[in-house]
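Q: Structure tokens for this one, please.
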Amino acid sequence: MPCLAGDLLVSLPVCFHHSPLERIAVSSQDQQIMFIFPGQGSQYVGMGSDLIRDFPIARQLYEQANDILGYDLVKLCQEGPEEKLKLTRYTQPALLVHSLACLNIFRELTGHQVNPVITGGHSLGEYCALVAAGALNFETALRLVQKRGECMADYGSGEMLAFPLHLDNIQPLAEKHYCVVAARNLLDQIVVGGLGEDLDRLTADAHAHFPRKRPARLKTEGAFHTFYMITAALHFRPALDAAEMDTPTIRILSNNTGAYHDPDPAAIKTRLFFQLFHPVHWIDNLERAFHDGITCIVEFGGGLGSDPNPEDKRPNLESMIKKALRGSDFSAHYHAAINSQTLRETAEVLRP
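A: Here is the predicted structure, written as tokens:
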């Protein structure tokens, strides 16, 4: 069970709900489209190198990011070192810029004619979703995630484990050991946060009850989305309060509630504040979108896999979406837009 070092995402083996042919969808006309964005764990050295090479709009965005951040993000993303790139304070800006570069390229390739009715993102990805929905501009979003990453790194503590168990099975055990649920990725994929020694005791206890269900340790700098991030959230709040935010033009899924954000910018800010130290309800986000008739999902940014080439990376959220759909009454086409190759392919398929 390979795991991702980062924002509560774990890659588990799944059976795809759709046949391979269903990945080839008709154009975007008459489809209900959702744009989604991954969180930490999908960063890699070399990310963005193909985008910068192939698309001037990506080069411009990365140059703007360098100026905003005050350091060379392009060099860090393309050359590493990996140990630095996976530090939360650098990972979060790097992923936001990569995801939004993919989004901008996609919009350019489709002539701005393929538009979502819903946006959503996992943890950090929620800030990309806010940009896609018109609530944040690029500079504001980048400054926010830069501050968010710094606060989480400087003031957070704890560690994380991902369990292939249902909530009712793992939550009582976790709370016995001063640990709490940090994310509900799927019905049977629950991420738990706590101190290292408490997680060790939880692991032993869970093994006694469910010996065939092995957890995966996540390589994070803290127990994200738990009470161990309260101090980080308090230090982040002034930046959040001061940020300029507009009423979104479309619906945005909230990790904190599992439903849609209230469109009032003040209400969105409170949910982003609470998101730092409350669980991510990702499965609820997905089910809400499915129930509301989403027929096409496009994922932007990041990538998984040991091969260093961007074109050989796998999408982060795809397997989670396919597993959530499997056995349900819903069906949706899925498309990746995470590198030059998949951006061109997806744009060609969805362009009206």
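A few notes: Confidence is low (pLDDT under 50) at residues 1-6, 11-25. The first strand starts at residue 33 and ends at 37.
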